[in-house]
Amino acid sequence: xxxxxxxxxxxxxxxxxxxxxxxQILARHRGGAGGQEVVRAISALTDEVVTELFQxxxxxxxxxxxxxxxxxxxxxxxxxxxxxxxDIDLLALLPREREPGRARANLVAEHLHxxxxxxxxxxxxxxRTLDQCVQLAREDHTIRTALLDGRLVAGNAQLFKGLxxxxxxxxxxxxxxxxxxxxxxxxxxxxxxxxxSVWLLEPHLKQGKGGLRDLQAALxxxxxxxxxxxxxxxxxxxxxxxxxVTAARAARxxxxxxxxxxxxxxxxxxxRLTFDNQRRLxxxxxxxxxxxxxxxxxKLMRETYIxxxxxxxxxxxxxxxxxxxxSPKSAxxxxxxxxxxxxxxxxxxxxxxxxxxxxxxxxxADLVRLHAVAETLGLPVYSYARDLxxxxxxxxxxxxxxxxEAHVDFWHLLVREGSDGxxxxxxxxxxxxxxxxxxxxxxxxxxxxxxxxxYTVDTxxxxxxxxxMRLRSGALADTEPQLTRISRAQQRPLVLxxxxxxxxxxxxxGPDHSARGAELVRGYAQRIGLDPADARDVEWLVLAxxxxxxxxxxxxxxxxxxxxxxAREVETIERLEMLYLLTYADMSCVSPENWTIWKANLLRAxxxxxxxxxxxxxxGAPEHAQSIEARRQRLADRLAPLAGDQAKLxxxxxxxxxxxxxxxALPETxxxxxxxxxxxxxxxxxxxLHRSAVGEADLTxxxxxRPGLLSIFTAALAANGIDILGAEVNSLASGIALDTFVxxxxxxxxxxxxxxxxxxxxxxxxxxxADDPHRLVQKRLRRASWASSAAPxxxxxxxxxxxxxxxMTILDVLTQxRPGLLHTIADALHRAGVSIEVARxxxxxxxxxxxxxxxxxxxxxxxxxxxITDPARRAAVVGAVETAIASLAGGG
Length: 892
Description:
Elements: H1 2-30, H2 35-58, E1 70-74, H3 75-78, E2 88-94, H4 102-118, E3 123-129, H5 130-139, H6 141-148, E4 151-155, H7 157-193, H8 212-226, H9 231-236, H10 242-266, H11 275-284, H12 296-325, H13 328-332, E5 339-340, E6 345-348, E7 351-354, H14 359-362, H15 366-377, H16 383-396, H17 404-415, H18 424-429, H19 432-436, H20 438-441, H21 457-473, H22 481-488, H23 493-502, H24 513-528, H25 532-543, H26 547-554, H27 560-570, H28 573-588, H29 597-616, H30 621-639, H31 650-656, H32 659-664, H33 667-683, E8 685-691, E9 697-704, H34 709-719, E10 722-731, E11 736-745, H35 753-768, H36 773-780, E12 797-801, E13 809-816, H37 821-831, E14 834-844, E15 847-856, H38 860-863, H39 871-889
Parallel strand pairs: 2-3
Antiparallel strand pairs: 1-2, 1-4, 5-6, 6-7, 8-9, 9-11, 10-11, 10-14, 12-13, 13-15, 14-15
């Protein structure tokens, strides 16, 4: 009874001390304390409480001074790295089975375990003998790792020293290579599992690449190989440069601070910077928005990405030196004689290194050439040469940006035949690209807070350059034959590569980043002495780099006047080819999912139509009509063998098709549409869901055309949870609408058969008038999980374009994608008395970028044209769409 009362009193004191101490530490954190200061303070508080509980329990047993029990902190607690919501890992180290005091030690361990939980400490608790620890460590490298971090908190010091000796001896005698191999496998597998990149939209601060676990794993390997105590000793013993040690310490401190705030803000062990957590942390840690400039959350993510990159670099360097170069096995081998490459570089032990430490001082351009040589020979760069490169960059400072020879070497790298671009990433990560181009260094790790832009601006630029180099090398010839052929035929590839390099560098300098980027090109050309003709074309590419994506996805490619206007803007076929290639590389490297077959077909159609127009030089209407007829005939000829029983209908079907359909349709697709068209002529409706292998499906809907038909189609899809990623609206000459959609379920897969059948049933009811589209959506629509989630908000912008089309008014809509959005817009336009003649629908992450070609049904009889000519009427249409979108966003 007295023991229970003493334990209860100790638990009560522990609870009080934990509450007081945690409040004090939180106040220090809120006051700006660094990450290390907080995790050390939490660990010290935990030591204090655990020690008092342990001593109180031990004191209740006779002969307490002789109790052989060690209380050992392991894992993060052992390293004194406890975050606010971390659990604590404790090992009660017991004497052997037949040793004196074993029974009392067992009782103490049991009482302590209960007391810890009663006090509110979430403890991962184990009670084992020394022999049991050693045996388990042999069987499981994670237990081995935990023991490496072991630290005595309270109890018998001699028993703990025995564990330390056993751990070290076991690793020295039996398991060093095996341990390192296990850790390397775990290291690489964790990176694969968590994305393998520091540039993730929602990075994991602990497990992701560059996260805290990366550095811990590298230090574990270094401890086993070289008995290192930590980062500081890695610098003292030359395994890491002092600059890298300092940078890694600062980066780790920031990640700890962010992780601490995550735990405080969410009240749980939360280590992932999701979008809502990013906004929460930016506000809590004082990252303010700049008026018209960088958002506070973007500043936070920029610093986070830099920290992750520093940790990843330091971790990779330690692993490289401890796991490969300096292993005992390699030390026993005869070191091969260095193989000279040239005056600057040699091959040593299978790696590229420098001939002496003054190589970069004599010729700074070799800072670029080091990785170019490594890429050519397919060998890694030796860590010593890498460290020397970083040191020399710091010494040279801004002078490299004006070193013409270094820039020429970089140009040679960009345009070298057969290069796959692999040298670019290390040149960027080590800072060489930023030193050559301060314009890029300014944007280092600059985040773009959206689902569409997966990579930071500088990383996107480097990836796009590397992708273009792969294209020019022929590596993508199987998937992109036309683009490969065009890229390999370029007479001035440097112009293309510099245009790609500068295309986004104006971001963060004002509203029009293309114009700001062109200004940067002019400054660069003057600084380096770029050929004036090349400079003019690079500048033009940067100014125009968004034009082809915009026109191909948001404009009617069968508008001859639009194509001719664009051809005049481009001026030369060489410029058209370079802009086509740049646009492809840009779109391909925005995010892994951005480049789709649909976008590729539209972009190719714009290129080919503009190319044909420029070759013709003043193509007249009769010839244009002849070309359309020739295309119709070609499609009919290719369609007939594929159409089966409907082959005889092919000529009639092709005559009814609008010109825009002929631009992108494949014969196989047209054959499916022909069969559907034949059915729709009899029944008034036909539909087909054609699933692809990429988690999406092509949906074709045909029905007798009428005002508001798109609203009906989209209502049935939205009501059944089918998201629309892209759409093409076509009206055939006979009054049949042929609309095609790229669709998927809200979870990301192609719509199931059950879901599609339900949507088809709703479609038939809507077409018959048995139900109202808007009412159906309001009744059935349930906000998708991401609709109210933490995805970055997209500001709605609705703009009228009355210039690009001579016969119709174009409405451009940029807004956040939501379930039912296309129906909402189509319904609002229908109610406003306008007809959608052409719709260009695109989804970029959670951003919808839609364009609608409109005819005014109320004004047309009076004016004889389809445009919305009255300014007040245009404003009313815009207002109707804005109101409808706002209502959808608000759940009304």
